[in-house]
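We were asked to recover a plausible sequence for a given structure. The inputs and outputs are reproduced exactly as logged, with field labels preserved.

PROBLEM: sequence recovery
POSITIONS: 137
GIVEN STRUCTURE:
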């Protein structure tokens, strides 16, 4: 099974950015734990702060991977293009968020990804990625 985690803007700063909201663990540390725990899955990771790069990566992998775990960060609430990319590819996408977006600012309650995703997991910290991986098993 081949699954990719795609992270959007500012998620490269996990562990340093707003630690009271996102915690002190880096995504690289989380990713290495996931690779150990799900060793039978060919797991890869891509992060970009650029909307078009996220869309291009989804086009690249979205026709031959078994799953995509997508945390588009703030683009979730603004990018019709990323939502359309999820809709355009046959690979199932799980939308994830580290925080409970419904407990945050009102603009974070809208997702352009969720309506086209296989499912949405929010609010479980970095364990949201683990839960998304379980959904593909």
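RECOVERED SEQUENCE:
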């Amino acid at each position: 099974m081949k699954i990719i985690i795609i992270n959007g803007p500012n998620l490269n700063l996990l562990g340093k950015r707003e630690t009271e909201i996102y915690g002190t663990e880096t995504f690289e540390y989380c990713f290495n734990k996931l690779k150990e725990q799900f060793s039978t899955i060919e797991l890869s990771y891509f992060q970009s702060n650029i909307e078009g790069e996220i869309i291009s990566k989804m086009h690249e992998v979205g026709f031959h991977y078994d799953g995509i775990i997508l945390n588009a960060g703030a683009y979730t609430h603004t990018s019709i293009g990323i939502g359309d990319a999820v809709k355009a590819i046959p690979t199932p996408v799980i939308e994830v968020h580290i925080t409970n977006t419904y407990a945050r600012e009102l603009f974070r309650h809208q997702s352009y990804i969720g309506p086209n995703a296989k499912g949405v997991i929010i609010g479980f910290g970095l364990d949201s990625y683990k839960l998304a991986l379980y959904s593909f098993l």
